[in-house]
Amino acid sequence: MAVTMQDIADMAGVSRPVVSAVLNGNSKLKVAPATRARIMDLVHKTGYTKNLSAYMLNGKSSRSIAVFINPDYLPIYRDLQYQLSLHLTACGYKVLQFPLITPKTEAEIMRDALQFGIDGIISVDCGNMVSQQELQKPMVTLMCDAFAVDAGIDHQYGGYTITRHLLEHGHRKICLIGPSLSAQTQKVAGFRSACEEFGVPLENSQLLDLTWNTGFAEQLERLIRHDGVTGFVASSDYIAVRLIGYLAGRGIKVPDDVAVTGYDGDMYACSGACRITTMRQPMTELARTGVEILMDKIKHERHEPLAEPVLLKASLHLGDSCGCGTPPEKTICWERVFATLEGAECLIKVPPPELTERYQHFNPETPGKTF
User: Fold this and answer.
1) C-alpha distances in Å from residue 136, one per residue of 114, 176, 304
2) Maximum C-alpha span of the chain
3) Is 181 helix (H, G, I), strand (E, B) or coil?
4) Residue 300's CB: how many other CB atoms inside 10 A?
5) What is the pTM of this model?
6) How far apart are CA 89 and CA 287, in angstroms?
7) Higher model confidence: residue 302 or residue 1?
8) What is d(CA 351, CA 349) in angstroms, rounded to the nearest whole number?
9) Which residues contact 321 (CB under 8 A, 6 or more apart)?
10) Residue 114: what pLDDT?
11) What is the pLDDT of residues 49-96, one digit of tens each?
12) Long-range contacts at 357-362 (CB < 8 A, ≥ 24 apart)
């Protein structure tokens, strides 16, 4: 049988309102530190959890936020998920994660989440098959090219910037390569804009879509051997890594023979022998922005998307794949494995002495020297 708040009160020798004040952060009722510690100890030992359904029926906040993320997400979304959890926790909310299996079930899953008494919703790169007004719950939509997005990345600027960088290297026959390019309209527009600015004719700025493309190998061969394409703008770092490996298997070296750039700023970009020049997406700033928008919607009980979405700009991150010849990295790994280059940016920091002691002398029984 589930432990109730009254059970905790009986075991602690206090009234139920005292337990409620401790668990809900009610500062109006003063509780002695020793009593507070005793109550929290009983909560941990008994595994007590709030009855969210009862809270919802009583019109109370559960202090929880539901986060929905497309299950087919990129590594950068894993870091975004991590950053969202950090920012929501800092605001005093619990985070409930809900994977979305298919766009068809998105609306149903979101409605099911309402039974947990959630205070708000964050949707990351989902199909938005249900409107915020329909749910009547404060909701923020991030990283989605569909309607009603609240905050995301300006991919047209990103596509323009990374293409411009290749053009500044002197490449005048270039190709944008990636899957489902018809759905990546902003990147394509940025690519076209940069080419037009540099006077590159349409026949010298090719698009190579990889989705269900059985003629990919022949098309790529023709672009390089016949058309003289010397620069490839990959739609993601993953595609850039795969392309570099594919070309290497056919005797084509990057960046000596052709230049390749990526997009996203995930750890694929620095995982190979040839580090990739890419556009680094600001996941930390996006998470902070999304949470701030949601907190404002909760405060003012607003259930509609922003009139104008907040679009953040990615930044150019130089590697070797474009021919820039950047300085070597100073580390292989640090405190944890990062999903993005944004996280790796702050790697070279002096760790606290207690962490240095813990990790460098973790197992003294292991043979060999620990430096």
Assistant:
1) 10, 41, 9
2) 85
3) helix
4) 8
5) 0.78
6) 12
7) 302
8) 6
9) 240, 244, 254, 255, 259, 260, 261, 262, 274, 275, 276, 277
10) 78
11) 666 555 555 555 678 999 988 766 678 888 898 899 989 988 889 998
12) none
